[in-house]
Write a structure and sequence with these properties.
Pathway: Metabolic intermediate biosynthesis; chorismate biosynthesis; chorismate from D-erythrose 4-phosphate and phosphoenolpyruvate: step 5/7
Subcellular location: Cytoplasm
Strand order of the largest sheet: 1-2-5-3-4
CATH architecture: 3-Layer(aba) Sandwich
Helix content: 40-55%
Bound molecules: adenosine-5'-diphosphate, shikimate-3-phosphate, magnesium ion
CATH topology: Rossmann fold
Keywords: Amino-acid biosynthesis, Aromatic amino acid biosynthesis, ATP-binding, Cytoplasm, Kinase, Magnesium, Metal-binding, Nucleotide-binding, Transferase
Number of domains: 1
InterPro entries: P-loop_NTPase, Shikimate/glucono_kinase, Shikimate_kinase/TSH1, Shikimate_kinase_CS
CATH superfamily: P-loop containing nucleotide triphosphate hydrolases
Structural class: alpha/beta
Family: Belongs to the shikimate kinase family.
């Protein structure tokens, strides 16, 4: 939440001339309700089931950029689907962000039900608990603090087009933050239609 998956995904799709899918948006269309309404009326479990279905559809049918909701990786079968996608050469990008940067972005926002109450404390707790999942799943990590969505999109492009060991743009070699379960090249195909998933980045 607030790492910029939706914003950066939009920029990246524009840059590459492809379309953006966003799992939250797909859930809202399928449910005919907002994410906040689904949480309030049906609960988080129902939201996760809708989200899992949206992720599966997007991975199967979408050739472009996919922005995930930050909790999409909590569903074991969504996580497994993303692992298969990455194992087949897809790029899964962890947009990393710290609490100070995120405070300026989403902490006053009421559209994210999991941040109700002490939003900063909730965000920090969620981010810490999910970080191991994000780092295990991601093929690339890009730090977003102090960068505009356009700047982050350029860094994502640079990261996924780089060869060999995945040195992220802030200079931290990929293997210092991630026990990578797969070791495939993650170049964007020349036709420019690769799906780049952003598994939250951070919550
Ligand atoms: N790099 C950034 N710098 C400043 N604000 C940003 C940045 N990325 C996103 N935002 C703002 O933060 C809010 C959340 O961004 P969003 O893309 O919805 O994040 P996510 O999808 O990861 O929750 C939006 O208001 C957006 O305009
Ligand atoms: O991290 C989460 O559990 C959530 C993140 C949200 O998406 P963003 O990460 O795009 O804000 C949205 O799916 C929902 O509010 C739950
Ligand atoms: Mg989003």
């Amino acid at each position: 939440m607030g790492s910029g998956k939706t914003s950066v995904g939009t920029e990246l799709a524009r840059r590459w001339g492809v379309t953006l899918r966003d799992s939250d948006r797909d859930v809202e269309v399928a449910a005919g309700r907002t994410v906040a309404e689904v949480f309030a009326e049906s609960g988080e479990e129902a939201f996760r089931a809708l989200e899992h279905a949206a992720v599966g559809r997007a991975l199967a049918e979408h050739a472009g950029v996919l922005a995930l909701g930050g909790g999409a990786v909590l569903h074991p079968r969504s996580r497994a689907a993303l692992e298969r996608y990455a194992g087949a050469g897809g790029a899964v990008v962890f947009l990393d962000v710290g609490a100070d940067a995120v405070a300026d972005r989403v902490l006053g926002d009421t559209t994210r039900p999991l941040l109700a109450g002490d939003a900063r404390a909730r965000w920090t707790e969620i981010a810490e608990s999910r970080r191991p999942v994000y780092t295990a799943l991601a093929t690339h990590r890009v730090v977003t603090d102090g960068r505009t969505p356009a700047e982050v999109a350029a860094l994502v492009e640079q990261a996924v087009q780089s060869d060999g060991p995945h040195t992220v743009p802030d200079g931290v070699p990929h293997d210092q933050f991630h026990d990578r379960p797969h070791d495939q090249p993650h170049d964007r195909p020349a036709d420019g239609t690769a799906t780049v998933s952003t598994p939250e980045d951070s919550p």
